[in-house]
Amino acid sequence: MMANRFTDTLFQLIHSLEKSEKRHFKLYIKRSSAKEDLKIIQLYDALDKMEEYDERLLLKKMPEITKTQLANLKNHLYKQLLASLRLLKTHENVDLQLSEHVDNARILYNKGLKIQSLRILEKAKELAKANQKFNTLVQILSLEKKIETLHITRSTTEKTEELAREALDNSEHINRVTRLSNLALLLYRWYVLHGHARNELDEKDIKSFFKNYLPADVNAINGFYEKLYLYQSYCWYGFIRQDFLMYYRYSQKWMNLYDEQPFMVAIETGHYIKGIHNLLNSLFDLRNYQKFDIVLKQFEAFSKTPAANDHDNFRAHTFIYINSAKINQHLMQGTFDEGLKLVAEIEQKLEEYDLFVDRHRILVFNYKIASLYFGAGEYDTSIDYLQRIINGPVDLRIDLQCYARLLHLMAHYELGNYEIIESLIKSVYRFMAKMKNLTVVEEEMFAFLRNSFDVSPRLLKPELEKFLDKIKHLEGDRFEMRAFAYLDVISWVESKVYGKTMGQVIYDKYLKSKKRNYNGAFLLKEPKKAAV
Predict the structure, then answer these.
(1) Count of alpha carbons within 13 Å of 374, Cβ hemisphere only?
(2) What is the dihedral of CA 216, 218, 222, 227, to 10 degrees?
(3) Which long-range contacts (CB under 8 A, 24 or more apart) does 273-277 make?
(4) Cβ distance 47 to 111 under 8 Å?
(5) What would the DSSP string read from start to end of 342-389?
(6) Which of 495, 520, 517 lies closest to 506, judged by CA?
(7) pLDDT per residue over 344-387, tens digit each?
């Protein structure tokens, strides 16, 4: 997976354009520019043909332009591209429509046409309310109040009182949305930095954090955005604490919001995509195979809709989350070889979407792909993917950094690279201890690996059975679940004890669990009320 090749903002913008956007820009610039300004078309064409930004090559292609002129020309082209996109996209985007209304109202007001300005603001206000755009509503109400305060507009007393009431109600709503969205954002940040709660200390810390930030008037929440950010907050809270049932319930509530107000899918598509992703993750964590399959099919159907293809961000993230879910499906079914068939397309698309994919997502994909190769018995290739994590920066996902090193150690163990195992054990143990990431499962894992060097092949099976017995009863422990979620150590040991491949062991469990699911033994209920 390649590093970001795009280093220039103008180059980034040009290479993010779709065919229709490029065509519109050419028409727009030829219509709106003077002849002497058409140098920007030459600049645009030169940048569009480049695979990587190279300023020296650019100056060679345009010898009549000096380096100083190039900087000014690039700035002018950047502004013209944005103007063209705004013109093209205004009717497709509610935010842009509202912005246009407010801009027009300001222009009319500055021309002294106060009544015309108020009429446009009234239209904008209705549009903002219908689409729950309360932040823009602040600007509309603010301008409306300014006009009513400074001028005689023949508005009635009732109209003025209604305006004051609207402004106050909107302010209270935005305050609640701000506090709830802050909580959701800070919880997500906690997870990206640390992963799941590792111990009682982390549990205490996250509980205290959640209670302190949760608004006291949470029972008064109303409207799409207040509920959206409340459910997101509970999602992250449950996920971090590995309360996967809470994580599922609030992911489902998140998606239910869109079922109740379907028009919001087109308005808040990004949150919709993220919501399906979290719902699928929760079903993966709960091993609810039946519902996972249903939701994944719904997500794939959504990926073909106009909303999912509205722009590159949505296309990229839909692709990323669907393929992440597909890999998860193969990991929980043990169909590793089938899962590996996805890898080539995923890597090709990640390169194509290089501009839109964050480092955290690349980290997760590298780990998931390494897990597929490990499960398929291709340990050398698994090591290659794990090295990308181990040799990279360690400022994200401490948990994944640790499990990448542990899986790397296990791959070398499987390859029989005993000459480096002992030093690897010490290195990985030190890293995990330093990161305060050691659980009982990992402690037992290190103890087994150390002891297994001196055990003859004939006596290894009883040692494996002892190891299996020690860790099997820890499956229900919440602070040990993290180890099993990232690294199916139990299935790995069982494959050695029962003389099967790891894939066969997991697939047998999948068939048994799937049967229980279909018999209705695994029911997921909605919570009656939010509770910390």
Answers:
(1) 29
(2) 130
(3) 273/308, 273/314, 273/317, 273/318, 273/321, 274/317, 274/321, 275/251, 276/302, 276/321, 277/321, 277/324, 277/325
(4) no
(5) THHHHHHHHHHTGGG--HHHHHHHHHHHHHHHHHTT-HHHHHHHHHHH
(6) 495
(7) 999 999 888 887 788 888 999 999 999 999 999 999 999 999 99
Q: 384-388: list long-range contacts, CB under 8 Å, 24+ apart.
A: 386/411, 388/1
Helix axis angle for 502-518 and 312-333, nearest 10°, is 100
In this model, does residue 247 exceed pLDDT 80?
A: yes
DSSP 110-179: HTT-HHHHHHHHHHHHHHHHHTT-HHHHHHHHHHHHHHHHHS-----HHHHHHHHHHHHHHHHHHHHHHH
The span from the CA of 29 to the CA of 290, in Å, is 53
Determine the residue type at 212: N
Give the residue ranges of DSSP H helices in 223-358. 224-240, 244-260, 264-267, 269-286, 289-302, 312-333, 336-340, 343-352
516: phi then psi, degrees, rounded to nearest 5: -65, -40
| Residue type at 332 in one-letter notation | M
Q: What is the pLDDT of residues 453-481, one digit of tens each?
A: 666 666 677 877 887 887 777 766 665 56
Nearest to 349 by CA among 373, 315, 382: 315
Residues with Cβ within 8 Å of 411's Cβ and at least 6 positions away in sequence, in order, are 374, 379, 380, 382, 383, 386
**What's the rounded Cα separation, in Å, for the pair 41 and 346?**
35
Report d(CA 319, CA 308) in Å as an integer.
10
**Model confidence pTM above 0.90:** no
Instruction: For residue 160, count other CB atoms closer than 10 A to its CB.
Output: 14
